[in-house]
Design brief:
By secondary structure, the chain is mainly beta. About 0% of the residues lie in helices and about 55% in strands. It is built from no helices and eleven strands. The strands form two sheets. Strands 2, 4, 5, 6, 9, 10 and 11 form a seven-stranded mixed beta sheet that branches. Strands 1-3-8-7 form a four-stranded antiparallel beta sheet, with no helix packed on it. Strand 4 (about 35-40) and strand 5 form a beta hairpin.
Length: about 120
């Protein structure tokens, strides 16, 4: 079955960095655009970033542009999100997803919590 498993979340100080990973299985990973979506405590879903199937096209929400980098390794069936210069407002559960239109997605991972706090 299709499965997405995120890892790499944790507690980090403002200005710090984290790299999230998403291990995919059960489908031909390299054939699909992939997406990161986040949900801050008490708030709705926010689209963060997309990457095309081959990795050549990437897009970002204005709130993370210049700080976050999405990437993928199709040989390892893994999606990444490098997060730099983290801010307290980046605190959220981060989800990896496929079959998305904005933050509306068909397949979701379980999410990984990122907390940015001093």
């Amino acid at each position: 079955q299709v499965q997405l498993v995120e890892s790499g979340g944790g507690l980090v100080q403002p200005g710090g960095s984290l790299r999230l990973s998403c291990a995919a299985s059960g489908f031909t990973f390299g054939s699909y655009q992939m997406t990161w979506v986040r949900q801050a405590p008490g708030k709705g879903l926010e689209w963060v970033s997309d990457i095309s199937s081959g990795g050549g096209f990437r897009s970002y929400a204005d709130s993370v542009k210049g700080r976050f980098t999405i990437s993928r390794d199709n040989a390892k069936n893994t999606l990444y999100l490098q997060m730099n210069k983290l801010k307290p407002e980046d605190t959220a559960v981060y989800f990896c997803a496929k079959d998305c239109h904005g933050s509306s997605c068909g397949v979701w991972g379980q999410g990984t919590l990122v907390t940015v706090s001093s």
